[in-house]
Here is the input.
Amino acid sequence: MKRCIALDLDCAETCAYAVATIARDSQYVREVCALCAKVCEECGAQCAKHEAQHCQDCARTCRECAQACRAMA
Here is the structure.
C-alpha cells in the first residue's frame, strides 16, 4: 500500500501541474499531458490491485484522466 500512496501523491501533483499548464496555454502542454497520462496509468494500475472501493474508484478515475491527457497530448 505504501507504493500506492506514493503514486497517488505523484499523480495528484502531476495532474495539478497539467491543469496549470493547460490554463496558461503553455507551450509544454503536450509534453506535460503525456507525462500525466503515464503517471495516471501507473497509479490506476497500482490502485486496481487493492480491493477497497476507494482504490477501485481511484483506479477508474486515473484511467479516465489518462485517456483525457492522451487526447491533449
In short: The longest helix spans residues 2-23. The chain has a mean pLDDT of 96.
